[in-house]
Amino acid sequence: MDNSNMPSIDFSQSELVEISDAITEMIRKTLADGDAEMHEKKYGTLTLLQEAQGKIMPVAFGFHPDETMWGPEQTKRIVKVRQRQGLPDKATETERKMWAATVSRR
């Protein structure tokens, strides 16, 4: 997908905190049910949310998820979900292309 024509957006500090909190909660819920609907395999949900979290948290809070008590454990749990779904520990370019193909601009 060509992003060159997409408008840029800005978020306030408060908005970034809320977005980060929502992402964290979505990751927790998905991990709690073991990703029963296999959204990681179909859409890369856990991987993409964790990557977004890693971009937002340093701006919103001044630290990266890996610097928290829960961040490394979250990564381990995501790897386990990926392994159960027959995926490699880290997302591949092939997966990313497949996920991007599921997104349509309206």
Overview of the molecule:
The chain has 5 helices and no strands. It is 60% helix and 0% strand. It has helices spanning 13-32, 39-43, 45-60, 71-84, 93-101. Helix 1 (13-32) packs antiparallel against helix 3 (45-60). The radius of gyration is 15 Å and the shape is globular. The chain is mostly helical and 106 residues long. The longest helix is centred in the first third of the chain and has 20 residues, at 13-32.
Summarize the structure.
The protein is mainly alpha-helical. It has helices spanning 13-32, 39-43, 45-60, 71-84, 93-101. The longest helix is centred in the first third of the chain and has 20 residues, at 13-32.
